[in-house]
Amino acid sequence: MKNNTTALKKLFYLWGRSQVPIKQTVRISRIDNLIIFLICILISIISSYKLLLISPLNISDIFSWLLTFTEVLVGSGILILVSRKENPTISSRQIIFIISLLLAVQSSKLALASTISPLSLIIPPALIIAQGMGSITALSWVSIASISWPEPAFAINNNLFFILLVCASVVSVLGGKIRSRAQLLQVSIFVPIGSFLGQWILIGKDKISLIDNEEFVFANGDLFSDALLLAIVMLFTILFIPIFESIFGLLTKARLLELADKEKPLIRRLSLEAPGTFEHTLLICGLAEEATRMIGGDIDLIKTGALYHDVGKLHAPNWFIENQNGSKNPHDEIDDPIKSAEVLQAHVDEGLKYARKNRLPKPIADFIPEHQGTLKMGYFFHKAKEKNIKINENDFRYNGPIPQSKETAILMLADGCEAALRAMNINASDKEALEIISKIIYSRQKDGQLDDSNLSKGEIFLIKRAFLNVWKRIRHRRIQYPTNKNNTFS
Ligand SMILES: [Fe+2]
Ligand SMILES: [Fe+2]
What we know:
Blueprint: H1 2-18, H2 30-48, H3 59-86, H4 92-112, H5 118-133, H6 135-147, H7 158-177, H8 181-202, H9 223-248, H10 253-259, H11 265-273, H12 275-295, H13 299-308, H14 330-334, H15 337-357, H16 362-365, H17 367-370, H18 378-386, H19 406-423, H20 430-446, H21 457-478
The chain binds fe (ii) ion (2 copies).
Protein backbone atom coordinates (compact mmCIF):
# COMPACT_ATOMS: atom_id res chain seq x y z
CA MET A 1 0.00 0.00 0.00
CA LYS A 2 2.80 2.34 1.00
CA ASN A 3 4.61 1.48 -2.24
CA ASN A 4 1.52 2.37 -4.22
CA THR A 5 1.24 5.75 -2.50
CA THR A 6 4.90 6.51 -3.21
CA ALA A 7 4.45 5.47 -6.83
CA LEU A 8 1.37 7.71 -7.10
CA LYS A 9 3.23 10.62 -5.54
CA LYS A 10 6.09 10.08 -7.99
CA LEU A 11 3.62 9.98 -10.86
CA PHE A 12 2.01 13.27 -9.73
CA TYR A 13 5.45 14.82 -9.36
CA LEU A 14 6.45 13.75 -12.89
CA TRP A 15 3.12 14.98 -14.26
CA GLY A 16 3.61 18.32 -12.52
CA ARG A 17 7.12 18.65 -13.92
CA SER A 18 5.96 17.80 -17.43
CA GLN A 19 3.40 20.60 -17.20
CA VAL A 20 6.03 23.32 -16.68
CA PRO A 21 5.96 25.31 -19.90
CA ILE A 22 9.24 25.47 -21.81
CA LYS A 23 8.41 29.02 -22.73
CA GLN A 24 5.75 31.51 -21.73
CA THR A 25 2.80 31.21 -24.09
CA VAL A 26 1.97 34.18 -26.27
CA ARG A 27 -1.37 35.89 -25.52
CA ILE A 28 -3.95 35.87 -28.29
CA SER A 29 -6.16 38.91 -28.75
CA ARG A 30 -9.96 38.67 -28.34
CA ILE A 31 -10.68 39.34 -32.00
CA ASP A 32 -8.25 36.59 -33.07
CA ASN A 33 -9.83 34.21 -30.56
CA LEU A 34 -13.22 35.00 -32.09
CA ILE A 35 -11.95 34.37 -35.63
CA ILE A 36 -10.38 31.06 -34.53
CA PHE A 37 -13.62 30.03 -32.79
CA LEU A 38 -15.72 30.89 -35.87
CA ILE A 39 -13.44 28.84 -38.15
CA CYS A 40 -13.74 25.89 -35.72
CA ILE A 41 -17.55 26.20 -35.82
CA LEU A 42 -17.42 26.30 -39.63
CA ILE A 43 -15.25 23.14 -39.69
CA SER A 44 -17.75 21.40 -37.38
CA ILE A 45 -20.71 22.45 -39.55
CA ILE A 46 -19.02 21.30 -42.77
CA SER A 47 -18.03 18.02 -41.15
CA SER A 48 -21.50 17.22 -39.85
CA TYR A 49 -24.29 19.00 -41.77
CA LYS A 50 -24.84 16.11 -44.21
CA LEU A 51 -26.17 14.06 -41.28
CA LEU A 52 -29.13 16.44 -41.10
CA LEU A 53 -30.03 16.05 -44.77
CA ILE A 54 -31.58 12.64 -44.25
CA SER A 55 -35.36 12.53 -44.58
CA PRO A 56 -37.34 11.70 -42.56
CA LEU A 57 -35.17 13.07 -39.77
CA ASN A 58 -35.59 11.42 -36.38
CA ILE A 59 -34.17 12.04 -32.92
CA SER A 60 -31.33 9.57 -33.31
CA ASP A 61 -30.16 11.38 -36.49
CA ILE A 62 -30.15 14.71 -34.67
CA PHE A 63 -28.27 13.10 -31.82
CA SER A 64 -25.64 11.63 -34.13
CA TRP A 65 -25.28 15.04 -35.84
CA LEU A 66 -24.80 16.72 -32.45
CA LEU A 67 -22.23 14.10 -31.50
CA THR A 68 -20.23 14.59 -34.72
CA PHE A 69 -20.48 18.38 -34.44
CA THR A 70 -19.20 18.34 -30.84
CA GLU A 71 -16.53 15.77 -31.66
CA VAL A 72 -15.04 17.92 -34.44
CA LEU A 73 -15.34 21.12 -32.37
CA VAL A 74 -13.60 19.53 -29.38
CA GLY A 75 -11.02 17.95 -31.72
CA SER A 76 -10.21 21.38 -33.22
CA GLY A 77 -9.89 22.82 -29.70
CA ILE A 78 -7.49 20.04 -28.69
CA LEU A 79 -5.48 20.65 -31.87
CA ILE A 80 -5.06 24.32 -30.92
CA LEU A 81 -4.05 23.41 -27.35
CA VAL A 82 -1.49 20.87 -28.59
CA SER A 83 -0.03 23.36 -31.06
CA ARG A 84 0.28 25.98 -28.30
CA LYS A 85 1.88 23.45 -25.98
CA GLU A 86 4.41 22.41 -28.62
CA ASN A 87 5.07 25.99 -29.79
CA PRO A 88 4.48 28.40 -26.91
CA THR A 89 5.37 31.32 -29.19
CA ILE A 90 2.85 30.33 -31.85
CA SER A 91 1.06 33.40 -33.17
CA SER A 92 -2.68 33.70 -33.81
CA ARG A 93 -1.84 33.92 -37.54
CA GLN A 94 -0.23 30.49 -37.36
CA ILE A 95 -3.15 28.96 -35.42
CA ILE A 96 -5.54 30.39 -38.01
CA PHE A 97 -3.31 28.83 -40.68
CA ILE A 98 -3.48 25.34 -39.08
CA ILE A 99 -7.25 25.34 -38.66
CA SER A 100 -7.78 26.90 -42.09
CA LEU A 101 -5.88 23.93 -43.53
CA LEU A 102 -8.33 21.69 -41.64
CA LEU A 103 -11.24 23.69 -43.04
CA ALA A 104 -9.80 23.41 -46.57
CA VAL A 105 -9.33 19.65 -46.23
CA GLN A 106 -12.86 19.10 -44.87
CA SER A 107 -14.31 21.17 -47.74
CA SER A 108 -12.18 19.31 -50.30
CA LYS A 109 -13.41 16.01 -48.88
CA LEU A 110 -16.98 17.13 -49.61
CA ALA A 111 -16.16 18.24 -53.12
CA LEU A 112 -13.55 15.69 -54.16
CA ALA A 113 -13.66 12.70 -51.82
CA SER A 114 -15.27 10.46 -54.36
CA THR A 115 -12.73 11.31 -57.05
CA ILE A 116 -9.40 11.91 -55.29
CA SER A 117 -7.55 9.57 -52.97
CA PRO A 118 -7.66 10.78 -49.34
CA LEU A 119 -3.88 10.38 -49.25
CA SER A 120 -3.45 13.41 -51.53
CA LEU A 121 -5.79 15.48 -49.36
CA ILE A 122 -4.29 14.78 -45.95
CA ILE A 123 -0.57 14.02 -46.35
CA PRO A 124 0.63 17.28 -48.03
CA PRO A 125 -0.87 19.62 -45.35
CA ALA A 126 0.60 17.31 -42.68
CA LEU A 127 4.03 17.94 -44.21
CA ILE A 128 3.58 21.73 -44.04
CA ILE A 129 2.40 21.59 -40.41
CA ALA A 130 5.20 19.22 -39.36
CA GLN A 131 7.77 21.51 -40.96
CA GLY A 132 6.39 24.72 -39.51
CA MET A 133 4.93 23.66 -36.14
CA GLY A 134 6.51 20.33 -35.27
CA SER A 135 5.64 16.65 -35.36
CA ILE A 136 3.19 16.51 -32.43
CA THR A 137 0.98 19.27 -33.85
CA ALA A 138 1.09 17.55 -37.25
CA LEU A 139 0.13 14.19 -35.73
CA SER A 140 -2.86 15.71 -33.92
CA TRP A 141 -3.91 17.49 -37.11
CA VAL A 142 -3.66 14.19 -39.02
CA SER A 143 -5.76 12.34 -36.43
CA ILE A 144 -8.61 14.87 -36.66
CA ALA A 145 -8.42 15.14 -40.46
CA SER A 146 -8.43 11.35 -40.92
CA ILE A 147 -11.16 10.48 -38.46
CA SER A 148 -13.77 13.01 -39.51
CA TRP A 149 -15.39 12.43 -42.93
CA PRO A 150 -18.15 14.87 -43.84
CA GLU A 151 -19.68 12.60 -46.48
CA PRO A 152 -21.26 9.64 -44.63
CA ALA A 153 -21.96 7.87 -47.91
CA PHE A 154 -18.26 7.74 -48.71
CA ALA A 155 -16.87 4.85 -46.73
CA ILE A 156 -13.11 4.80 -46.68
CA ASN A 157 -11.59 1.38 -47.21
CA ASN A 158 -10.06 0.03 -43.95
CA ASN A 159 -6.78 -0.86 -45.61
CA LEU A 160 -6.59 2.56 -47.27
CA PHE A 161 -7.32 4.17 -43.89
CA PHE A 162 -4.44 2.19 -42.37
CA ILE A 163 -2.07 3.20 -45.18
CA LEU A 164 -3.21 6.82 -44.83
CA LEU A 165 -2.46 6.81 -41.10
CA VAL A 166 0.95 5.18 -41.56
CA CYS A 167 2.02 7.51 -44.41
CA ALA A 168 0.68 10.65 -42.70
CA SER A 169 2.39 9.68 -39.42
CA VAL A 170 5.69 9.02 -41.20
CA VAL A 171 5.44 12.40 -42.95
CA SER A 172 4.54 14.13 -39.65
CA VAL A 173 7.44 12.61 -37.74
CA LEU A 174 10.02 13.03 -40.51
CA GLY A 175 8.69 16.48 -41.43
CA GLY A 176 9.51 17.76 -37.96
CA LYS A 177 13.10 16.57 -38.24
CA ILE A 178 13.98 17.29 -41.85
CA ARG A 179 16.79 19.82 -42.11
CA SER A 180 17.05 20.53 -45.84
CA ARG A 181 14.93 20.99 -48.93
CA ALA A 182 16.71 17.99 -50.52
CA GLN A 183 15.43 15.70 -47.76
CA LEU A 184 11.94 17.14 -48.31
CA LEU A 185 12.19 16.12 -51.96
CA GLN A 186 13.22 12.62 -50.93
CA VAL A 187 10.18 12.34 -48.65
CA SER A 188 7.88 13.55 -51.40
CA ILE A 189 9.16 10.77 -53.66
CA PHE A 190 9.56 7.89 -51.20
CA VAL A 191 6.23 8.35 -49.36
CA PRO A 192 4.15 8.04 -52.57
CA ILE A 193 6.23 4.99 -53.55
CA GLY A 194 5.61 3.53 -50.08
CA SER A 195 1.89 4.24 -50.29
CA PHE A 196 1.78 2.66 -53.76
CA LEU A 197 3.47 -0.52 -52.51
CA GLY A 198 1.28 -0.56 -49.39
CA GLN A 199 -1.91 -0.29 -51.43
CA TRP A 200 -0.64 -2.85 -53.89
CA ILE A 201 -0.01 -5.36 -51.10
CA LEU A 202 -3.09 -4.61 -48.99
CA ILE A 203 -5.71 -3.59 -51.54
CA GLY A 204 -4.64 -5.56 -54.57
CA LYS A 205 -2.69 -5.20 -57.77
CA ASP A 206 -5.68 -5.86 -60.00
CA LYS A 207 -6.65 -2.20 -59.68
CA ILE A 208 -3.43 -0.94 -61.24
CA SER A 209 -3.80 0.71 -64.57
CA LEU A 210 -0.84 2.38 -66.18
CA ILE A 211 -2.21 3.36 -69.54
CA ASP A 212 -5.83 4.15 -68.87
CA ASN A 213 -5.40 7.71 -70.12
CA GLU A 214 -8.94 8.94 -69.71
CA GLU A 215 -9.00 8.65 -65.94
CA PHE A 216 -5.27 8.60 -65.46
CA VAL A 217 -5.03 11.05 -62.59
CA PHE A 218 -8.38 11.22 -60.94
CA ALA A 219 -9.66 7.68 -61.05
CA ASN A 220 -10.33 6.58 -57.49
CA GLY A 221 -8.71 3.30 -56.58
CA ASP A 222 -6.29 3.47 -59.47
CA LEU A 223 -3.18 2.87 -57.41
CA PHE A 224 -0.59 4.21 -59.80
CA SER A 225 -2.47 7.43 -60.48
CA ASP A 226 -3.12 7.86 -56.73
CA ALA A 227 0.58 7.62 -55.95
CA LEU A 228 1.45 9.89 -58.87
CA LEU A 229 -1.08 12.49 -57.77
CA LEU A 230 0.26 12.32 -54.20
CA ALA A 231 3.82 12.87 -55.47
CA ILE A 232 2.71 15.83 -57.61
CA VAL A 233 0.75 17.47 -54.77
CA MET A 234 3.67 16.94 -52.36
CA LEU A 235 6.13 18.49 -54.81
CA PHE A 236 3.83 21.49 -55.22
CA THR A 237 3.55 21.72 -51.44
CA ILE A 238 7.35 21.91 -51.15
CA LEU A 239 7.33 24.71 -53.72
CA PHE A 240 4.76 26.60 -51.64
CA ILE A 241 6.41 26.08 -48.24
CA PRO A 242 8.71 29.16 -48.59
CA ILE A 243 5.63 31.27 -49.40
CA PHE A 244 3.82 29.99 -46.29
CA GLU A 245 6.99 30.64 -44.29
CA SER A 246 6.97 34.28 -45.24
CA ILE A 247 3.19 34.87 -45.02
CA PHE A 248 2.57 33.04 -41.74
CA GLY A 249 6.04 33.42 -40.19
CA LEU A 250 6.57 29.65 -40.08
CA LEU A 251 10.01 28.63 -38.92
CA THR A 252 11.04 25.44 -40.66
CA LYS A 253 14.38 23.71 -40.06
CA ALA A 254 15.33 24.39 -43.67
CA ARG A 255 14.61 28.12 -43.17
CA LEU A 256 16.66 28.15 -39.97
CA LEU A 257 19.63 26.65 -41.79
CA GLU A 258 19.24 29.08 -44.67
CA LEU A 259 19.25 31.99 -42.22
CA ALA A 260 22.38 30.58 -40.59
CA ASP A 261 24.24 30.93 -43.89
CA LYS A 262 27.09 33.37 -43.28
CA GLU A 263 26.71 34.71 -46.82
CA LYS A 264 23.37 36.31 -45.87
CA PRO A 265 23.67 40.08 -46.53
CA LEU A 266 23.16 41.09 -42.89
CA ILE A 267 25.83 38.69 -41.64
CA ARG A 268 28.21 39.73 -44.43
CA ARG A 269 27.71 43.34 -43.36
CA LEU A 270 28.46 42.37 -39.77
CA SER A 271 31.72 40.70 -40.79
CA LEU A 272 32.81 43.69 -42.89
CA GLU A 273 31.57 46.65 -40.84
CA ALA A 274 31.85 45.22 -37.33
CA PRO A 275 34.54 42.51 -37.53
CA GLY A 276 35.03 42.47 -33.76
CA THR A 277 31.32 41.84 -33.17
CA PHE A 278 31.41 39.15 -35.85
CA GLU A 279 34.27 37.34 -34.09
CA HIS A 280 32.43 37.66 -30.77
CA THR A 281 29.32 36.23 -32.46
CA LEU A 282 31.20 33.20 -33.80
CA LEU A 283 32.67 32.39 -30.41
CA ILE A 284 29.25 32.75 -28.79
CA CYS A 285 27.79 30.40 -31.41
CA GLY A 286 30.33 27.79 -30.31
CA LEU A 287 29.62 28.24 -26.59
CA ALA A 288 25.84 28.32 -27.00
CA GLU A 289 25.74 25.36 -29.39
CA GLU A 290 27.75 23.14 -27.02
CA ALA A 291 25.59 24.11 -24.03
CA THR A 292 22.35 23.56 -25.94
CA ARG A 293 23.54 20.15 -27.08
CA MET A 294 24.30 19.25 -23.44
CA ILE A 295 20.77 20.08 -22.24
CA GLY A 296 19.01 18.71 -25.33
CA GLY A 297 17.68 22.07 -26.60
CA ASP A 298 17.11 23.28 -30.16
CA ILE A 299 20.61 23.55 -31.63
CA ASP A 300 19.57 24.94 -35.02
CA LEU A 301 17.51 27.65 -33.36
CA ILE A 302 20.28 28.82 -31.04
CA LYS A 303 22.94 28.71 -33.77
CA THR A 304 20.87 31.02 -35.95
CA GLY A 305 19.68 33.19 -33.05
CA ALA A 306 23.27 33.64 -31.85
CA LEU A 307 24.35 34.74 -35.31
CA TYR A 308 21.85 37.62 -35.33
CA HIS A 309 21.86 38.59 -31.63
CA ASP A 310 24.12 41.62 -31.98
CA VAL A 311 23.29 42.79 -35.55
CA GLY A 312 22.01 46.01 -33.96
CA LYS A 313 25.64 46.99 -33.35
CA LEU A 314 25.81 47.73 -37.08
CA HIS A 315 24.15 51.08 -36.35
CA ALA A 316 27.34 52.32 -34.66
CA PRO A 317 30.05 49.61 -34.70
CA ASN A 318 32.86 51.79 -33.31
CA TRP A 319 30.92 52.48 -30.10
CA PHE A 320 31.52 48.89 -29.03
CA ILE A 321 34.89 47.98 -27.61
CA GLU A 322 35.41 44.86 -29.72
CA ASN A 323 35.41 46.97 -32.90
CA GLN A 324 37.60 49.83 -31.68
CA ASN A 325 40.90 48.08 -32.36
CA GLY A 326 43.01 50.62 -30.47
CA SER A 327 41.28 53.70 -31.88
CA LYS A 328 39.64 56.35 -29.70
CA ASN A 329 36.66 55.33 -27.61
CA PRO A 330 33.71 57.61 -28.47
CA HIS A 331 32.27 57.01 -24.98
CA ASP A 332 35.36 58.73 -23.47
CA GLU A 333 34.90 61.64 -25.86
CA ILE A 334 31.27 62.35 -25.00
CA ASP A 335 31.90 61.59 -21.32
CA ASP A 336 28.18 61.26 -20.65
CA PRO A 337 27.18 57.94 -19.00
CA ILE A 338 23.46 58.45 -19.74
CA LYS A 339 24.11 58.96 -23.47
CA SER A 340 26.44 55.95 -23.48
CA ALA A 341 23.72 53.82 -21.87
CA GLU A 342 21.34 54.98 -24.62
CA VAL A 343 23.82 53.85 -27.28
CA LEU A 344 24.01 50.40 -25.64
CA GLN A 345 20.20 50.11 -25.50
CA ALA A 346 20.11 51.22 -29.16
CA HIS A 347 21.96 48.04 -30.21
CA VAL A 348 18.85 46.15 -29.09
CA ASP A 349 16.29 48.55 -30.59
CA GLU A 350 18.17 48.85 -33.89
CA GLY A 351 18.65 45.07 -33.93
CA LEU A 352 14.89 44.61 -33.79
CA LYS A 353 14.53 47.08 -36.67
CA TYR A 354 17.08 45.11 -38.74
CA ALA A 355 15.15 41.94 -37.87
CA ARG A 356 11.89 43.45 -39.15
CA LYS A 357 13.53 44.81 -42.30
CA ASN A 358 15.11 41.44 -43.06
CA ARG A 359 11.92 39.55 -42.16
CA LEU A 360 13.62 37.44 -39.50
CA PRO A 361 11.10 35.04 -37.89
CA LYS A 362 9.97 35.97 -34.36
CA PRO A 363 11.82 33.16 -32.54
CA ILE A 364 15.08 34.46 -34.05
CA ALA A 365 14.26 38.13 -33.40
CA ASP A 366 13.52 37.21 -29.73
CA PHE A 367 17.24 36.58 -29.18
CA ILE A 368 17.96 40.28 -29.77
CA PRO A 369 16.25 41.80 -26.69
CA GLU A 370 16.34 38.66 -24.53
CA HIS A 371 20.13 38.15 -24.70
CA GLN A 372 20.49 41.42 -22.80
CA GLY A 373 17.39 40.95 -20.66
CA THR A 374 17.21 43.72 -18.06
CA LEU A 375 20.92 43.52 -17.26
CA LYS A 376 22.57 46.50 -15.61
CA MET A 377 25.11 48.43 -17.68
CA GLY A 378 27.44 48.30 -14.69
CA TYR A 379 30.36 50.29 -16.10
CA PHE A 380 28.33 53.36 -17.06
CA PHE A 381 26.18 53.09 -13.93
CA HIS A 382 29.27 53.36 -11.72
CA LYS A 383 30.66 56.15 -13.89
CA ALA A 384 27.43 58.11 -13.40
CA LYS A 385 27.60 57.46 -9.67
CA GLU A 386 31.18 58.71 -9.56
CA LYS A 387 30.08 61.88 -11.31
CA ASN A 388 27.34 62.30 -8.69
CA ILE A 389 24.70 62.61 -11.39
CA LYS A 390 21.19 62.12 -10.04
CA ILE A 391 20.37 58.77 -11.55
CA ASN A 392 17.73 56.14 -11.62
CA GLU A 393 19.16 52.61 -11.73
CA ASN A 394 16.54 51.62 -14.33
CA ASP A 395 18.04 54.12 -16.80
CA PHE A 396 21.11 51.91 -16.76
CA ARG A 397 19.29 48.66 -17.34
CA TYR A 398 18.35 47.20 -20.71
CA ASN A 399 14.62 47.31 -21.42
CA GLY A 400 14.24 43.51 -21.56
CA PRO A 401 12.34 41.25 -21.55
CA ILE A 402 14.43 38.74 -19.59
CA PRO A 403 15.04 35.43 -21.44
CA GLN A 404 11.76 33.61 -22.01
CA SER A 405 13.24 30.32 -23.22
CA LYS A 406 16.13 28.04 -22.37
CA GLU A 407 17.82 28.92 -25.65
CA THR A 408 17.76 32.71 -25.18
CA ALA A 409 18.91 32.22 -21.57
CA ILE A 410 21.88 30.13 -22.75
CA LEU A 411 22.74 32.89 -25.21
CA MET A 412 22.69 35.48 -22.42
CA LEU A 413 25.06 33.32 -20.35
CA ALA A 414 27.36 32.69 -23.34
CA ASP A 415 27.36 36.44 -24.09
CA GLY A 416 28.42 37.14 -20.51
CA CYS A 417 31.15 34.51 -20.42
CA GLU A 418 32.62 35.12 -23.88
CA ALA A 419 34.70 38.22 -23.11
CA ALA A 420 35.90 36.82 -19.77
CA LEU A 421 37.00 33.53 -21.34
CA ARG A 422 38.67 35.28 -24.25
CA ALA A 423 40.61 37.54 -21.88
CA MET A 424 41.78 34.67 -19.71
CA ASN A 425 45.42 33.79 -19.46
CA ILE A 426 46.39 30.90 -21.70
CA ASN A 427 48.00 29.16 -18.73
CA ALA A 428 44.88 29.43 -16.54
CA SER A 429 43.72 26.12 -15.12
CA ASP A 430 40.34 24.50 -15.75
CA LYS A 431 39.41 25.27 -12.15
CA GLU A 432 40.03 29.00 -12.67
CA ALA A 433 38.01 29.02 -15.88
CA LEU A 434 35.13 27.17 -14.20
CA GLU A 435 35.23 29.66 -11.30
CA ILE A 436 34.89 32.61 -13.67
CA ILE A 437 32.07 30.93 -15.60
CA SER A 438 30.23 30.06 -12.36
CA LYS A 439 30.64 33.61 -11.04
CA ILE A 440 29.15 35.16 -14.19
CA ILE A 441 26.27 32.69 -14.32
CA TYR A 442 25.54 33.14 -10.61
CA SER A 443 25.41 36.93 -11.00
CA ARG A 444 22.80 36.57 -13.79
CA GLN A 445 20.80 34.13 -11.66
CA LYS A 446 20.92 36.41 -8.62
CA ASP A 447 19.80 39.35 -10.74
CA GLY A 448 16.64 37.36 -11.67
CA GLN A 449 17.56 37.19 -15.36
CA LEU A 450 16.92 33.43 -15.60
CA ASP A 451 13.58 33.47 -13.74
CA ASP A 452 11.40 32.96 -16.84
CA SER A 453 13.72 30.60 -18.69
CA ASN A 454 12.82 27.41 -16.79
CA LEU A 455 16.46 26.32 -16.69
CA SER A 456 16.84 23.77 -13.90
CA LYS A 457 19.83 23.61 -11.54
CA GLY A 458 21.02 20.47 -13.31
CA GLU A 459 20.85 22.20 -16.68
CA ILE A 460 22.81 25.20 -15.37
CA PHE A 461 25.47 22.75 -14.13
CA LEU A 462 25.62 21.18 -17.61
CA ILE A 463 25.86 24.62 -19.24
CA LYS A 464 28.88 25.45 -17.07
CA ARG A 465 30.58 22.18 -18.09
CA ALA A 466 29.81 22.89 -21.74
CA PHE A 467 31.35 26.38 -21.56
CA LEU A 468 34.41 24.88 -19.88
CA ASN A 469 34.77 22.33 -22.69
CA VAL A 470 34.66 25.11 -25.29
CA TRP A 471 37.23 27.10 -23.30
CA LYS A 472 39.52 24.03 -23.35
CA ARG A 473 39.13 23.88 -27.11
CA ILE A 474 39.95 27.58 -27.50
CA ARG A 475 43.00 27.20 -25.28
CA HIS A 476 44.18 24.28 -27.33
CA ARG A 477 43.83 26.32 -30.50
CA ARG A 478 45.83 29.19 -29.01
CA ILE A 479 48.78 27.01 -27.93
CA GLN A 480 51.53 27.58 -30.46
CA TYR A 481 53.09 24.44 -31.81
CA PRO A 482 56.89 24.44 -31.69
CA THR A 483 58.23 25.00 -35.19
CA ASN A 484 61.47 23.63 -36.46
CA LYS A 485 63.11 25.35 -39.43
CA ASN A 486 64.30 22.08 -40.80
CA ASN A 487 61.01 20.40 -40.29
CA THR A 488 59.07 19.85 -43.45
CA PHE A 489 55.52 18.66 -43.05
CA SER A 490 54.88 17.89 -46.67
FE1 LIG B 1 24.37 42.47 -27.12
FE1 LIG C 1 26.79 39.81 -27.79
